[in-house]
Amino acid sequence: MIEIKDLVKRYGQIQALDGISFHVRRGEILGFLGPNGAGKSTTMNILTGYISATSGSVSVGGYDIIDSPVEAKKLIGYLPEQPPLYQDMTVNEYLRFICDIKSVPLKERKRQLDEILYIVKIGDMRDRLIKNLSKGYRQRVGLAQALVGNPQVLVLDEPTVGLDPKQIIEIRKLISALRHEHTIILSTHILQEVSAVCSAVVVINRGKLVAQGSVSDFTSAEGTVNKFVICVAGAAGKSDAQKALQSTDGVRRVDFVRMDKDSYIFNVESEKNTDVRRGVFNAVARAGMAILELRPIGRTLEEMFIDIVNKEPVQSEEE
């Protein structure tokens, strides 16, 4: 649905993008990640036709953003980090204005706007001036304008900024539901948001693509250790339990987490590709204790992100 090839953008001597390439499949929600200054906003501005690239190409639905800008832009709904709102308009006036810009047929406007206002849950605000709305509601109006015209592609830059926890959950559910009719690029600094709604991830740093794949690819990526939580109980004390765990072949580190009634909870790290469960069971039994719980700790997206951006960017080979 979206194809970005060898994208380069220079501002004088500054290279904002250095030959990045990736694609987004139809119906996919792509988490677009990177630290501040990585080139995310530049990429989205080129994708949506706000600025031109120095070189490279972007196509949306088979239309090149330079050669066929009108056809490509008709397929895109864009929510920038700062929504483009006119403060002295009511919500209704503003969205009708967006309908004019996007050439939505007159006979479809009322039905479409009613549906959008219901989806983003601002129907009761339709006659309010935008300047009198809270930041969270203004963000919702921005999302509503992106949905006008029923675009096939949504490009969302920090869509939950300024929302309270309840509203964030609602917007995440909305984004997840929109995947059935839209292909979505979601740029966010909230990594939990990526885990919650995205099916794929692209990470850029210093203008270069440094990682891409499914969310599960990242969170299950191999590290140098395996981690798990263990809860043990018995007459022996915390120190004896920790020593027993530490003495197990293949165990690298044991950290005490907390005491829970008469049991002790530890985080345990073992060597990669080493199954220490049998050894841990025997060591705990020899110490006169019992295992109440043993569960693995998955690699978090936060850990993945920090690992990636701390490495020197290297352009990934195009598949």
Succession of helices and strands: EEEHEEHEHHHEHEHEEHEHEEHEH
- Round the mean pLDDT to the nearest integer and report it: 87
Quantity of strands, as a count: 14
Rg on CA atoms, Å: 25 Å
What percent of the residues sit in helical stretches (DSSP H or I)? 25-40%
- Give the N-terminus to C-terminus distance in angstroms: 16 Å
- Counted up, domains total 2
Strand content: 25-35%
Q: Main β-sheet: number of strands, strand sense, barrel status?
A: 6 strands, mixed
Low-confidence residue ranges: 313-319
- Backbone structural class: alpha/beta
- CATH-level-4 superfamily name of the largest domain: P-loop containing nucleotide triphosphate hydrolases
CATH architecture of the largest domain: 3-Layer(aba) Sandwich
Strand order of the largest sheet: 6-7-8-3-9-10
Q: CATH class of the largest domain, anyone?
A: Alpha Beta
The coarse overall form would be elongated
